[in-house]
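User: Hi! I have a protein structure encoded as tokens and I'd like to know what sequence might fold into it. I'm fairly new to this, so please keep things simple.
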């Protein structure tokens, strides 16, 4: 009974403010406010307010809300643990297999001079070898992470 009275008062106040806004030529805002003001009285007439009041004072309903909250916390906790460990079981197994199959940085460089067996390999310049090693390190890191 009190909830219905409060909702009716809120609707009446909202409609009064909407009338003042319409008087000041702010028709769009007045129409929007009138729409919002009609919602509480509509909820009273459909019985939603009575149902909500009965639910608010029911111990069984509050236990149900508590259990829903506990379930929500369990889901959040498992998601947090899953993110820290790196995903699902399949993803972790795939990551371990990829880590075992990772190629060493030196093995990813192509072998040159395979056609001539008798000729000596050309002397490598120390300046050009350093950037090639850097790229092979980066390539190994990318392969390790599956990129």
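Assistant: Happy to help. Inverse folding works backwards from shape to sequence: for each of the 147 positions I chose a residue that suits the local structure. Here it is:
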């Amino acid at each position: 009974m009190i909830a219905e009275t409060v909702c009716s008062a809120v609707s009446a106040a909202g409609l009064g403010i909407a009338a003042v806004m319409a008087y000041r030529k702010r028709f769009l805002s007045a129409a929007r406010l009138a729409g919002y003001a009609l919602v509480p009285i509509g909820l009273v007439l459909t019985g939603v307010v009575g149902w909500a009041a009965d639910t608010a004072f029911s111990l069984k309903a509050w236990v149900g809300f508590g259990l829903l909250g506990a379930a929500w916390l369990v889901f959040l906790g498992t998601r947090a643990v899953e993110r820290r460990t790196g995903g699902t079981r399949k993803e972790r197994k795939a990551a371990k297999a990829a880590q075992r199959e990772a190629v060493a940085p030196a093995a990813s460089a192509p072998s040159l001079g395979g056609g001539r067996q008798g000729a000596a390999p050309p002397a490598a310049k120390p300046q050009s070898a350093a950037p090639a090693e850097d790229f092979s390190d980066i390539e190994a890191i990318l392969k390790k992470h599956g990129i």
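A useful reference point when you look it over: The mean pLDDT is 80. Feel free to ask if any position seems puzzling.
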